[in-house]
Amino acid sequence: MPGLTSTEDALSSGVRPSRRGRNLSRRLGAAFWFAVPFVALAITWAVVVEVTGVEARTFPQITDVVRAFGEMWTSGEYLRHTGASLRRVILGALIGILTAVPFGILLGSSRWASVFFAPLLRFSVALAGIAWIPLATLWLGFGERAVIFIVWNATFFALTYNAMLGVQRIPTQLLQAARSMGTSRPRMFVEVMLPGALPSIVTGLRVGLGYGWRGLVAAEIIATSAGLGYSIFLAQKFFRTDIIIVGMITIGLLWLVTDRALLAPLERRTVERWGMKAVIS
Amino acid sequence: MVRTFGPFVPVVLIWWVIAEAEVFPPDLFVGPGTVLAEFRELIAKGILPAYLSDSFTRLWTGVLFGLLIGIPAGFIVAMSRWARRLTWPLLLFFQAIADIAWLPIVIVWFGFSLTAVTFVIVYTIVFPLMISIVSGVEEVPKDLVRAARSLGAGRFRVFTDVIVPGALPAVATGIRTGLGYGWRALIAAEIIVGTSGIGFMMFDARRAGVVTGVFVGMIVLGILWYALDALILAPFERGTIERWGMVRTAEVGR
Fold first, then answer.
1. Could you tell me which chain B residue has the CA closest to the CA of A256?
2. Which pTM does this prediction carry?
3. Across B84-90, average pLDDT
4. Out of B78, B96, B221, closest to residue A256 by CB
């Protein structure tokens, strides 16, 4: 809430209805207010295109987009491209998590290693993702492997770096307490460092996937013959703006769902569960 | 200095040994010596400076417009409840459409021109910046606002003297995030439809199968971005945080 108005809100709020009723109506209200801007946008879109009479090859009418979606859906194109993209993101991110998290925690658990690797990792994070596309296609050829490599690469460095920072932020007392009770190294790893670094790891995952998703779109345009990035770029060659917009909306929705329904709650939960303040990006 | 640059020395050394021992085929992996020679040649021919300045022109034009639009828009959305209600869901959605996905339609509209690239970079910067500003304004302690109000500050003064300075660290963070996406979008644009620029140089070398050119491009990019981030953006962010006494952890990896 903006500073000024909410100050007055706090001062003037008086009688309150029962909690359950308030929750339900608040939820409905939130959903309503979330939908209003999109409806307004759709109406503006339809009216502006109608009034200005802009050509479909420059900007499509909203009904064209819906029709294009229907056609792509029945021909199976839509699911083929979306599925290909999703598969690559999931595979790349999964390999990224499996390689980066243990590596990052390992680095974080040693003072010497973290001092040494911090600048190297920052350099690599700066470069991660799209800038690797020429090299990836040279090493792995045009195709599936190069795209997955890009997604992995984009998530790996951000995740490693944040996992390392996360371990360093664990209060020393916790580490000492666990150690003085005779915790073995593997148990320290799994029961103290991993949960302690989790909020930071999730933040790293959000940053990394943000790069990974962009890298995916770019890599698909260059290196493959399936996927959302490929489909919108192909459509551009034929001036099929309706297909481009179907692809863009899909890309937006997929990321919105991943981020809001998966990563953000995960971040909130780990922060609450482990009581550590995460680094907010 | 040693802490920041020291670790690169053994890495370059290991790189050199691996390349000398020809662990990987030399047409896929070259050593620091070859890269340095190519770097010198590209400088001498004037290719690298010309391409770099092309890339920089594109980046700065985009960043400039991005800041001019993003900062005022961010504060408007943060301060006005109605603006926030009406635009917040759209902000989230448009931020979610990866900037690179705009490239095809932008090319349809403008061709591959400075306008097209600028559009994409402005896009990458405006949304993270606005979202960051809104959360920054939210984090300004209410007590500060109340204190200023009770000392007789008008709304405008509260805005200029309390809200804006309090949200500065968020502005800095937003610029840093936005730029991180922005230059990636630039590289992607140059690779995909490029006619010049550092991304084009890399992909051109890749097309010719010359791995040395790709290596040079990546290293130049990495050094430039690292320098920009470590010497300008991070200190700016830290500076605003220290100056205004807001506690916030700045060194997120990006």
1. B96
2. 0.83
3. 85
4. B96
Please state, in angstroms and rounded to a whole number, the distance separating the CA atoms of residues B149 and B143.
10
How confident is the model over A3-20, as a mean pLDDT? 46
Is residue A157 a contact partner of residue A196, using CB atoms and an 8 Å limit? no
Greater pLDDT, B245 or B251: B245
Using a CB cutoff of 8 Å and minimum separation of 24, what contacts does A274-277 make? A274/A195, A274/A196, A274/A198, A274/A199, A276/A169, A276/A170, A276/A196, A276/A199, A277/A199, A277/B249
How far is Cα B83 from Cα B167, in angstroms, rounded to an integer? 18
What is the rounded CA–CA span in Å between residue B230 and residue B221? Answer: 14
Which residues fall within 8 angstroms of residue B74, CB to CB, at 6 or more apart?
B129, B130, B131, B132, B133, B134, B171, B174
Q: Which two tokens stand for residue A63?
A: 């009904």
Residues of B in contact with A141 (CB under 8 A): none
Residue of B107, B163, B188 with shortest CB distance to A130: B188
A interface test, pick of B11, B55, B93 with most A CB neighbours within 10 Å: B93
- The predicted pLDDT at position A250 comes to 92
Cross-chain residue pair A135–B211, CB shorter than 8 Å: yes
Question: How far is it, in rounded angstroms, from Cα B9 to Cα B6?
Answer: 6
Name the one residue in this structure whose structure tokens are 């010049």.
Answer: B196
Consecutive H or E run containing B248: none
Measured CA angle at A183 (ends A179, A187), to 5 deg? 120
